[in-house]
Model the fold of this input.
Amino acid sequence: MSLLELYCDVDDFCQQIHACYPKVLETKAGQRIRQPGLSESELMTIVIHFHQSGYRHFKAYYCEHVQVHLGQEFPALVSYSRVVQLMPRITLLLWAYVQCRSGHCTGISFVDSTALRVCTNPRINRHKVFAGLAARGQCSLGWFYGFKLHLVINE
Done:
């Protein structure tokens, strides 16, 4: 899917959501509403395109790719720090978009897992943040203390 096709799909989705649920995405009463340089559709397109790119860090992607190569596609680009401030505005929309575009289970699923390490093994007894939630586990790289993230996708 090209960047233009992605933007059109995201923009159509945002327009449908705002038409069906106009009050769901409003801000709190009395809160100052600052107009962002990027629309919700543009920001969501950038975030989705980041996940499709080969970049591992959003800051590098935004500063090295978006600001350098995609200036014509997004004429009202803002600084990286402003993009980070705008991210909470699209969280709910992005979640709804992913839910609407996800596939349905056909009976064939692929499962993978990865370790989310909380701290190094010598610090387990002193760790307080996730006490009671994190646990010791084992993966292909050895023992760890933290969580195990499981991902299930269909074909």
